[in-house]
Write a structure and sequence with these properties.
The complex is a heterodimer of chains A (about 400) and B (about 400). Chain A contains two helices and 34 strands. Chain A has about 400 residues and is mainly β. With about 400 residues, chain B is an alpha+beta fold. Chain B folds into three domains: about 140 residues, no CATH class; about 55 residues; about 190 residues, Jelly Rolls (Sandwich). Chain B is built from 14 helices and 14 strands. In chain B, the strands form three sheets. In chain B, strands 1, 4, 6, 8, 9, 11, 13 and 14 form an eight-stranded antiparallel β-sheet that branches. In chain B, strands 5-12-7-10 form a four-stranded antiparallel β-sheet. In chain B, helix 1 crosses helix 6, helix 2 packs antiparallel against helix 3 and helix 3 packs parallel to helix 5. The longest helix of chain B is centred in the first third of the chain and has 20 residues. Chain B is globular, with a radius of gyration of 25 Å. The chains are: A mainly beta (about 400), B alpha+beta (about 400). At the A-B interface, strand 6 and strand 10 of A face helix 3, helix 5 and helix 9 of B.
Chain lengths: ~400, ~400
C-alpha cells in the first residue's frame, strides 16, 4: 500500500523540462505564473530600475518568453494589423539578435483591445514557436533561422474567430501543441517540432475560446488539460486520445492552475478541485465567488490564490480554505495575468502600472506601484533576476 | 516632380528587365523549393535546408529572393520574406550596404508582387532617406495596399500644408485612389469641405438595390449548412415555402445607407433561427475577375451565377468591414449574385443584428470598369452605390 501511495505521488507531477530560471511559455514554467527567481526588483519606472529597454515595431497582447539568455517577443503592426513580427533580444543587454516578419494570411478581425500578436510564443533551447491570431505559425531556431512555417488558415480555410484568437501553443511530450478553438474548423493538434507537420489533430467544438492547455504527467502519460466553453477535456499528448472530461470546468478566457493534487479553475469566481490520476472530483473543495478572474488567469502562490479583473480589483483568498484575505481596487483594469516570485506578486494593469504586493502578508500590503505609462496587455515574464514587461511600444527588463 | 518620377521609373524598368546576373543554380533550386511548399507543411522538410542555402548566399540572393514572390502564394511569400530579413540583417552586420539602385528599380516595377515591392521599399528606406519623398508620389494608385495608403497620406499632408489652387481637384483624385475605409471617410470629408462631391457609397461600389426573400426556417441555428432553393436562384421570380409554412416571394428593396446596409430585421421582420437571401443582378460590359465583399455579423454564403464562392459560419462576433470576400469572374452581360444571410437563436441584446452590406470591386477594393447594378425597384441599370433620392423601398418607408 505504501509503495502504491508513493508511486501515485511520483506519478502525478507537472511537466518541467527547462531550468527553473527560464520563462518559456505563457505564465512561465509549469504555466503557473510563478518563478523561483530571486532577488527580484520591487520598484522601477521609465527612468529608474530598468536594466534595458528595446523599442518594439508593433503592439502585442502576448507575453515575452525567455530561455537561457534569449528573450523572444511577438508584435503585429500595419493598418490592417497583418504585419507579424518575431524578435529575439539578448536578455542581459537588450541587444536585438534578430527580427523576422511574416505577412498574416488569415483574417485580422478582432476586438479593438486585442491584436494579431495575442498568442504567447513558446520557446525551448533550440528556438521559438510563434503562433499569431491570423493562424500563421512559424518555428525559428535560436539564431533566427526559419525552421518551418505553416499558414493554418491556408490549411484549414474555415478557421474563423472575428473576436480574435489568443490561445498559446505549448510544448509537451516532445510535440508542439497548437490549440485552435474557433467557430470554423476547430481543433487541437500536435505538430512535430522539426518540420511542423501534424502528428495528430483532434476535432474540437466549433466555439471560440482563448484558453491554453495545461500539462501534467500521470503514470507516464503526458496529459493536456484543455478548457472550452462547455467543459474541460483531457487528451493524451502523445496520441491525442481523450482521457477524461469534466463538464464543470468550462471557461473561455482565463486558464486554471495545477498545483500538485489541486486544480484551481476560474469557474464560479475561483474554485479549488481535487484532481487525481482519473480526473477531477466534481464537487469543489471551495469556491470563492468574489474572486473574479476576468481576462487574467488566477495565481496560486505561497498558500494564497490571487485574481485580478477588468474593474481593477485584486482578490486574495486562502488556498486551503478559500476564505477571503482581501479584495481591493487599484488603478487600472487587468488583462495581464498576475505573476509571482521572491515573496512578491506583480499585477500589471492595462495602462502599464505594476502593483507589487507583499505575498507574505494576509492583508493588502502594496510594496510599490510602478508606472511605465504605456499600454500593457501581455503577462510579464520573470527570468534571470529580472521582470520582462512588454508594452505596446517597448520591451523593458526591470531589475539589475 | 512628375517628370523626375517618370525618368526614375523608366530607368527602373530598364534595370529590372535585365535578368539578375549571377544567380547560381543553388539559389535557383532553393527558391524553387521554397515555392513548392503546400498545405499542412508539405515540403517543409526540404524548405528548411533551402532557406539556409538561400540566406548563406548573402546579398547576392536578395533581389532574386524578392523577385520570387508571387501574388497569391502566401505560404511561399512568408518563407521568402523571412529570408530577405535574414539576408538584409546579415549584410548590415557585416557592414555592407544593400544595393539601393536595384531596390529602387525593383520597387518601381509593377510586374513584381506587391508585397515584395513593399518589402524592397522598406529596405531602400534604410539605405536612402530621400527615397520616401522621391518615390511615394508614384504609388498613389499602386497595387500594394500599404504603398498606396502611405502615398495618399503623404500627398494629403502636402496638400493641406500647401493649399494649392487645385486643392479640390487634387483631393478628388486622392479620394478616387484611396481604398481603406478610414481614409475613404476622411477624404470624403475633405473633398466636401473643399466644395466638391464625394459619395462614399459609389466609391465603394455598394449594391444598393436588391431583391430579398425570407425568413426560411433554420432549425437549431443550422441554416448555414442547409441547402435552400434560392441558393441557386437565377432571378427573383417564383414562390417558396418559408418559416411556419408561409408563402414567400422576392420583394424589391433599396438602401439609402452610405455604407450600403440592408437591415433585415426592418425589411423582413425580426426572426430567429432563420435564413434570408438577397439577390442582385450586375451587368458587366466584359468578362472580368471580381471580388464580392460582404459585411455581416452572422453566418453567410456568397453565390455568383449559381456557384458558391464563399461561406463563413460564425455568429455575432463582430462584423469587420469587407470581412467576407468571394472571388469570382463576372461574365459579359448579366450576372446574378445571391447572398444567404443566416440568423441564430441567441437572445443577448448584442446578438440581434441581422444585416448585410455587399459591394462588387476589383482585388484592390476599387471600382470595376463597365459594371452596373439592375435596380430591383424598376429594373433599370444604375451605377453601383447609387442612392435613391426618394424613398421607394420597404426599409425607407418603415
Amino acid at each position: 500500500m505504501t509503495r502504491f501511495i508513493l508511486a501515485a505521488f511520483f506519478a502525478i507531477t507537472p511537466t518541467l523540462t527547462l531550468t527553473a530560471s527560464d520563462w518559456p511559455q505563457f505564465r512561465g514554467p509549469n504555466a503557473t505564473g510563478v518563478s523561483d527567481e530571486k532577488p527580484l526588483p520591487t520598484e522601477w519606472s521609465k527612468t529608474k530600475g530598468i536594466a534595458w529597454k528595446a523599442e518594439l515595431p508593433g503592439r502585442g497582447a502576448s507575453s515575452p518568453v525567455v530561455v537561457g539568455n534569449r528573450v523572444y517577443v511577438t508584435c503585429s503592426s500595419g493598418t490592417r494589423d497583418d504585419r507579424l513580427h518575431v524578435l529575439c533580444f539578448d536578455a542581459t543587454t537588450g541587444k536585438q539578435h534578430w527580427h523576422r516578419q511574416l505577412q498574416g494570411t488569415g483574417s485580422t478581425a478582432c476586438h479593438p483591445k486585442s491584436c494579431m500578436a495575442a498568442n504567447t510564443p513558446v520557446a525551448d533551447e533550440t528556438g521559438v514557436y510563434a503562433l499569431f491570431a491570423t493562424g500563421d505559425l512559424a518555428a525559428f531556431d535560436a539564431d533566427g533561422t526559419l525552421r518551418w512555417y505553416r499558414s493554418l488558415v491556408g490549411d484549414y480555410p474555415t478557421i474563423t474567430n472575428a473576436v480574435g484568437m489568443a490561445s498559446s501553443p505549448i510544448l509537451a511530450a516532445g510535440r508542439l501543441i497548437v490549440p485552435m478553438d474557433n467557430a470554423g474548423e476547430s481543433f487541437l493538434a500536435a505538430l512535430d517540432t522539426k518540420y511542423g507537420k501534424n502528428v495528430w489533430k483532434v476535432e474540437r467544438p466549433r466555439e471560440i475560446s482563448w484558453t491554453t492547455p495545461l500539462v501534467r504527467t500521470v503514470g507516464g502519460v503526458t496529459e493536456l488539460l484543455f478548457t472550452g466553453p462547455k467543459g474541460l477535456t483531457t487528451y493524451d499528448a502523445t496520441t491525442g486520445e481523450t482521457r477524461w472530461a469534466f463538464k464543470g470546468g468550462g471557461g473561455s478566457i482565463p486558464v486554471g492552475v495545477l498545483d500538485g493534487d489541486s486544480l484551481y479553475l476560474p469557474v464560479g469566481g475561483v474554485s479549488k478541485f481535487k484532481i487525481d490520476a482519473k480526473g477531477v472530483v466534481e464537487k469543489p473543495e471551495w469556491a470563492a465567488k468574489d474572486a473574479k478572474a476576468g481576462y487574467a488567469s488566477p495565481l496560486v502562490y505561497a498558500g494564497k490564490v490571487y485574481t485580478s479583473d477588468g474593474q481593477g480589483f485584486i482578490s486574495c483568498v486562502d488556498a486551503k480554505t478559500g476564505k477571503e484575505h482581501y479584495k481591493e481596487r487599484v488603478k487600472g483594469a487587468f488583462s495581464a495575468s498576475p505573476v509571482a516570485a521572491d515573496g512578491k506578486v506583480y499585477c500589471l494593469s492595462e495602462t502599464g502600472i505594476c502593483t507589487v504586493l507583499d505575498a507574505t502578508a494576509n492583508t493588502f500590503e502594496v510594496l510599490a506601484s510602478n508606472e511605465l505609462g504605456e499600454a500593457s496587455l501581455g503577462t510579464p515574464a520573470i527570468a534571470n533576476g529580472r521582470i520582462f514587461i512588454r508594452t505596446d511600444k517597448a520591451l523593458y527588463a526591470a531589475g539589475r | 516632380m512628375q517628370i523626375r518620377f517618370c525618368v526614375a521609373a523608366l530607368l527602373a524598368v530598364a534595370l529590372v528587365t535585365t535578368p539578375t546576373p549571377g544567380v547560381d543554380d543553388e539559389t535557383t533550386r532553393a527558391l524553387a523549393t521554397l515555392k513548392r511548399v503546400t498545405r499542412e507543411g508539405k515540403g517543409n522538410e526540404d524548405a528548411g535546408p533551402a532557406w539556409k542555402t538561400l540566406v548563406s548566399k548573402g546579398g547576392g540572393a536578395l533581389l532574386p529572393t524578392l523577385e520570387a514572390f508571387e501574388d497569391g502564394n502566401h505560404t511561399a511569400a512568408n518563407w521568402l520574406r523571412t529570408a530577405v530579413d535574414a539576408i538584409a540583417e546579415a549584410e548590415k552586420a557585416a557592414g555592407r550596404k544593400l544595393p539601393a539602385d536595384k531596390l529602387e528599380a525593383f520597387t518601381l516595377n509593377p510586374k513584381f508582387a506587391a508585397d515584395a515591392r513593399r518589402k524592397a521599399y522598406e529596405l531602400l528606406l534604410t539605405q536612402d532617406s530621400t527615397a520616401k519623398a522621391r518615390l511615394l508620389p508614384g504609388f498613389i494608385n499602386d497595387k500594394s495596399a500599404d504603398l498606396r495608403r502611405d502615398a495618399i497620406s503623404n500627398e494629403l499632408e502636402i496638400l493641406e500644408r500647401t493649399a494649392p489652387p487645385t486643392l479640390k481637384a487634387d483631393l478628388e483624385k486622392l479620394f478616387a485612389a484611396t481604398r481603406d475605409k478610414d481614409q475613404v471617410e476622411l477624404l470624403a470629408k475633405k473633398v466636401i469641405a473643399a466644395g466638391g462631391k464625394a459619395s462614399i457609397s459609389e466609391h465603394f461600389g455598394f449594391v444598393t438595390f436588391a431583391s430579398l426573400i425570407g425568413p426560411f426556417d433554420a432549425p437549431e441555428s443550422k441554416g448555414f449548412a442547409i441547402a435552400y432553393a434560392p441558393d441557386t436562384a437565377k432571378d427573383s421570380s417564383g414562390k417558396f415555402t418559408g418559416k411556419e409554412a408561409a408563402e414567400l416571394k422576392w420583394i424589391p428593396a433599396s438602401t439609402s445607407d452610405p455604407l450600403g446596409k440592408f437591415d433585415l430585421n426592418k425589411l423582413l421582420g425580426k426572426h430567429k433561427n432563420s435564413v434570408a437571401f438577397a439577390l442582385t443582378t450586375i451587368v458587366s460590359q466584359q468578362e472580368q475577375p471580381c471580388e464580392i465583399r460582404v459585411t455581416s455579423p452572422t453566418s453567410l454564403k456568397i453565390f455568383l451565377n449559381q456557384k458558391e464562392l464563399f461561406g463563413r459560419d460564425e455568429y455575432h462576433h463582430g462584423s469587420p468591414f469587407d470581412g467576407n470576400v468571394g472571388r469570382g469572374t463576372l461574365r459579359k452581360g448579366e450576372n446574378v449574385i445571391v447572398v444567404k444571410v443566416c440568423q441564430n437563436n441567441q437572445t443577448e441584446n448584442w446578438a440581434q443584428d441581422w444585416r448585410f452590406q455587399m459591394r462588387v470591386c476589383d482585388d484592390t477594393g476599387g471600382p470595376l470598369a463597365g459594371i452596373t447594378q439592375v435596380s430591383a425597384i424598376d429594373g433599370k441599370a444604375v451605377p453601383l452605390g447609387l442612392i435613391s433620392e426618394k424613398p421607394t423601398n420597404t426599409e425607407d418607408k418603415k
